[in-house]
UniProtKB/TrEMBL annotation:
Residues 136-216 form the Peptidase A2 domain. InterPro entries: Aspartic_peptidase_AS (IPR001969), Clan_AA_Asp_peptidase_C (IPR011969), Peptidase_A2_cat (IPR001995), Peptidase_aspartic_dom_sf (IPR021109), Retropepsin-like_bacterial (IPR034122). It comes from the Bacteria. GO terms for biological process: proteolysis. The chain crosses the membrane at residues 36-55, 62-83. It comes from Neomesorhizobium albiziae. Keywords: Hydrolase, Membrane, Protease, Transmembrane, Transmembrane helix. The keyword Chaperone does not apply. This is Aspartyl protease family protein. It holds the Pfam family gag-asp_proteas.
Length: 234
């Protein structure tokens, strides 16, 4: 190992001297000084690793298998990073198929999000939203100015309904009711996330289903309906 170290240091020193001498010409052995420097750097590190492996006394077969395993892991991580958006889309499709009402999120290479919602058996578009960390089933209501939570869903989202002031008149499928103003820290539909969203909480038993209103939908770049599917664009 001692002789190998001296050889490595000698190669490194000789390379540095060549770079200094050829600084004005910009080339060393027909290569640009930058390329030569990178080659020298990688070569020295390769020599250090090789010397360490050979000096460890490990069998070459074991070393070769270990290096091959590490190379495979590195390639898997690189591939996972390069295809991260496709993998996210695949996971979203699997989730949407396994959990009814789950939104299907697609993210393009520019990081733009599109979420697709399927029509429910009742003929309305609905999905599973996450409000303040709580999963809540919502109906999309483009006729509603604001998102309106049922009292039960409001409690799931962390609001203390006993301390709310129900003074705002609202029209529901069950008739006129009163609601209270709150602000959600975060609401997300698939990959589309909005923070500090004002919404209403209906009185107990005044609303059967939480409604996703235009104060959320209006923040999107666009949305449209194609058959039994609604498409939301961030």
């Amino acid at each position: 190992m001692g002789r190998s170290l001296w050889i490595i240091l000698a190669v490194l020193g000789g390379g540095l001297i060549l770079l200094i001498v050829n600084d004005s010409s910009g080339e060393t052995f027909g290569m640009s000084n930058d390329a030569f420097g990178q080659t020298l750097y990688l070569g020295v590190w390769g020599a250090v690793v090789a010397a360490g492996i050979l000096g460890s006394g490990m069998r070459l077969g074991y070393v070769a298998r270990s290096l091959a395993l590490w190379m495979l892991l590195i390639l898997v991580f690189i591939a996972g990073y390069q295809y991260r958006y496709e993998l996210q889309d695949f996971a979203s499709r699997v989730t949407a198929g396994l959990v009814p009402g789950s939104p299907l999120s697609i993210t393009d290479s520019d990081g733009n999000h599109t979420v697709m919602l399927d029509k429910l058996s009742n003929g309305h578009f609905g999905t599973r939203a996450v409000i303040n960390g709580a999963a809540i089933n919502v109906l999309v209501d483009t006729g509603a100015t604001s998102t309106v939570l049922t009292a039960a869903d409001a409690r799931r989202a962390g609001f203390d309904t006993s301390k709310l002031s129900f003074t705002i008149p609202v029209s529901t499928a069950n008739g006129m009711a009163r609601a209270a103003q709150v602000t959600a820290d975060e609401i997300s539909i698939g990959a589309i996330v909005r923070r500090r969203v004002p919404m209403l909480v209906a009185e107990s038993n005044a609303l059967d289903q939480t409604l996703l209103g235009m104060n959320f939908i209006g923040t999107l770049s666009g949305f449209d309906v194609r058959g039994d599917r609604m498409i939301l664009r961030d």
